[in-house]
Specification:
By secondary structure, the chain is of the alpha/beta class. It has helices at residues 2-6, 16-19, 34-38, 81-91, 113-129, 148-151, 160-171, 196-214, 225-228, 278-283, 294-297, 318-328, 372-383; strands at residues 42-45, 51-54, 64-67, 95-101, 132-138, 178-181, 188-189, 192-193, 220-222, 250-257, 300-306, 340-343. It contains 13 helices and 12 strands. It is globular.
């Protein structure tokens, strides 16, 4: 941790075009759609006094849907107006996550037109069907959200993250269906875990200062250490403004893959955490290891989860997925209902992908296109209404 605390983060410039982008007029949402019913979401307390995602009027809600894979790969063919409408109308999704890789294999840093084309289109398409949209700044490689590739890019000196959130927060400030994921999965750099305090927290606070300049109450989701699996690191160190006042309408992410992040059982799988009971941490707490019940302590959004091993390629485990979905549905000490996005709406990344091939069309749905994981998630979306209580 000391290594990172000593690092001086060089911040690049923000383009005037982002600072002065035209503000988009407010969309009208279908009356019976998720956004039409619940409005602009916020973080408030449930009946047990636990902070959670709530409707505009303060009722706890649970969103369910999919995340895209990287837009720089073939799965982008599935991100169409027709498919987004089908996810809402035919699958029962209430949320869609747009995963914007940055400096990885030709991501946003090399194709910023994604902002003017894909992002603008998906904002429009999700609004038109009344589905919430998580705009995900997909930090993965490099591992540190404060890395120059994000904050002062070697090719042009731009603060890519600051510029991106300036554009989005100003442009979409009138929209009720937008949520921001500030950084996807901070992870490991040269064998050292990127720490929450001193690095990730500081980055999130930088982005929140930008976003709150334009949108005072949009829900922002903060990525957490170790591929967003060490959510407990945030406890006692939540994000604050320059005066030390905790930011409102902020949640913290947890990413779970059922075969790897389980109840402590020993599973023969490429990515395993032997003896670590992730379910206990979140559901009731692990006091032996100094971890209180996370879902009683922090407002959490599972912006990425899979039915498989954390690598995505092996071990489809519907039994362990059932256990996690039960916890997400409120069977935890805080009775917090957890919103989630399944990884991923694509045929990429292994058996965790929902589709067998990237056709660009899923309506009308041919069940043969779905993988076992896709069928599992489809059944949960189709057969269970998104909850509000």
């Amino acid at each position: 941790m000391a290594k990172f605390e000593k690092d001086i983060v060089k911040i690049g410039y923000i383009d005037d075009a982002s600072i002065n982008v035209d503000v988009l007029s407010a969309y009208s949402y279908p009356e019976n759609s998720p956004v039409g019913k619940w409005g602009k979401l916020k973080v408030a307390k449930n009946a047990k006094g636990v902070r959670c995602l709530c409707s505009e009027t303060g009722e706890p809600v649970q969103l369910k849907g999919f995340s895209t894979h990287g837009l720089q790969w073939a799965g982008v063919a599935n991100v169409t107006e027709c498919n987004i409408k089908a996810l809402k109308e035919e699958w029962g999704c209430s949320v869609f996550r747009l995963a914007l890789y940055v400096d990885y294999e030709g991501g946003y840093a090399y194709n910023p037109t994604f902002r003017q084309t894909m992002l603008e289109n998906v904002v429009k398409w999700t609004a038109e069907c009344g589905m919430y949209l998580v705009i995900d700044w997909h930090v993965l490689t490099p591992a540190n959200p404060q890395a120059p590739e994000y904050r002062c890019h070697p090719k042009n000196g731009m603060d890519l993250a600051g510029d991106f959130f300036t554009y989005c927060a100003r442009r979409f400030q009138n929209q009720k269906h937008i949520l921001y994921e500030l950084c996807n999965e901070p992870n490991i750099d040269n064998g050292e875990k990127i720490p929450w305090v001193g690095v990730i927290k500081d980055y999130c606070e930088d982005m929140l200062r930008i976003i709150r300049t334009y949108d005072k109450d949009v829900v922002a989701l903060c990525g957490t250490p170790s591929w967003s699996q060490d959510t407990q690191d945030v406890i006692g160190h939540e994000v604050t403004d320059e005066n030390g006042v905790p930011y409102e309408n902020v949640m913290y992410t947890f990413h779970v893959y059922a075969a790897s992040h389980n109840d402590g059982r020993d599973i023969d799988t490429p990515t395993s955490f032997h003896g670590v009971n992730f379910m206990k941490r979140f559901k009731e707490g692990d006091l032996e290891n100094g971890i209180p019940a996370i879902l009683e302590t922090l407002p959490v959004f599972v912006t990425e989860w899979g039915t498989t091993d954390a690598g995505g390629w092996t071990n489809f485990r519907p039994d362990l997925s059932d256990m996690w979905l039960d916890i997400f549905d409120g069977n935890n000490k805080g009775e917090q209902m957890i919103s989630w996005c399944n990884w991923s709406f694509s045929a990429e990344g292994g058996v965790c992908g929902a589709l067998k091939w990237n056709t660009g069309k899923i309506s009308p749905l041919d069940l043969d296109i779905l993988t076992d994981s896709g069928k599992y998630v489809y059944d949960h979306l189709k057969n269970e209404t998104n909850k509000i209580k």
